[in-house]
Amino acid sequence: MQNNLVNWYWKIDVNSEQLVLCLSSDIHFPTLFCRQQVSSLTSPQCAFTTEDAWLYSAFRDLLGLTNLNQEAQFTLAINATAACNYLTPCATKSWFFETLSKDKKTFECGDIVETQSLTLGYYLVLDSDPLTSTIILLSQKQQVDSNRVFNQGQVLKVHNDRLEKKSNIELLTL
């Protein structure tokens, strides 16, 4: 369903090969995702749908409870929306993180979770099933091993036993 209240649309930029959200004829917001990661754009230019608007608003409201600045909230909400609706599925990368629990855990879209590797990282759950969750990094960065750092906006899929739900998100230092 198309949202007729705004004329935003998604497209793949021909020069950068990135998924871009076009807010107006002269304001284009590049996401963190390249053409190879995008699976479900049905044409060169796809409308920002009502579902996109609903997800964006839900993520923006949730991120408004954190200590992230307005620009980071907007950026993460747009990237989370794009990841939920347009990215190809990704393989799990659980080996980067410590097991936090032996209990079976389930998560919902919008949960804020923590992971532990060399440093602590806070993520937003985008999608979940009984075994795994797709998450996007809210922290500025997370050092996962001596050679690798994940940056804010990184999308991963991990096993649920690597995640711990956080309830007081306004107290987290992102």
- Major beta-sheet overview: 5 strands, antiparallel
What share of the residues does DSSP label as strand, in percent? Answer: 25-35%
Average predicted local confidence, pLDDT: 90
Distinct helical segment count: 2
Q: What is the CA-CA span between the terminal residues?
A: 34 Å
Structural class: alpha+beta
Query: Segments where pLDDT lies below 50 for 5+ residues?
Result: none
Order of adjacent strands in the largest pleated sheet:
10-7-6-5-11
Number of domains: 2
Give the helix level as a range of percent. Answer: 10-25%
Description:
By secondary structure, the protein is of the alpha+beta class. The protein folds into 2 domains: 9-86, no CATH class; 94-168, no CATH class. The chain contains 2 helices and 11 strands, in the order E-E-E-E-H-H-E-E-E-E-E-E-E. The chain has helices at 50-63, 70-86; strands at 9-12, 18-24, 27-34, 45-47, 112-116, 120-128, 132-137, 141-145, 148-151, 155-159, 164-166. Strands 10-7-6-5-11 form a 5-stranded antiparallel sheet. The chain has a 4-stranded antiparallel sheet with strand order 3-2-1-4, covered by helices on one side. A two-stranded antiparallel ribbon has the order 8-9. Strand 6 and strand 7 form a beta hairpin. Helix 1 crosses helix 2. The radius of gyration is 16 Å and the shape is globular. The termini are far apart. The model has no long low-confidence stretch (mean pLDDT 90).
